[in-house]
Write a structure and sequence with these properties.
Number of helices: 2
Distance between the termini: 24 Å
CATH class: Alpha Beta
Order of helices and strands: EEEEEHH
Structural class: alpha+beta
CATH topology: GIY-YIG endonuclease
Number of domains: 1
Oligomer: single chain
Shape: globular
Length: 95
């Protein structure tokens, strides 16, 4: 399983591998801790998807789930998406 993780930066979501033990409990809107560059960052799960088509892309695994219930409700995530599309900016800036 793969999850799209959004950070409050000038970029779109990044794809990470969901570990087997988190698959039954991870939810959209939850915060997760993931490896990002040379450190760990907290991000928001914004969706679930497939592995990127480019096999050369090396995906990293989610380190931990910080919330069992969504930190951001669906209506806030929908607002972030709308702001991003309306202002034609990366969703990370809207976050």
């Amino acid at each position: 399983m793969f999850a799209d993780i959004q950070f409050p930066i000038n970029a779109e979501a990044f794809t990470y591998i969901v570990p087997d033990e988190l698959e039954p409990i991870i939810k959209i809107g939850a915060r997760v801790e993931v490896p990002f560059k040379r450190s760990y960052k907290t991000g928001i799960v914004t969706g679930f998807g497939k592995r990127p088509k480019d096999p050369a892309i090396k995906l990293k695994e989610i380190k931990s789930l910080l919330d069992e219930e969504p930190f951001l409700p669906k209506n806030i995530l929908d607002l972030i998406k709308w702001v991003s599309e309306y202002y034609m900016s990366p969703s990370g800036l809207a976050l």
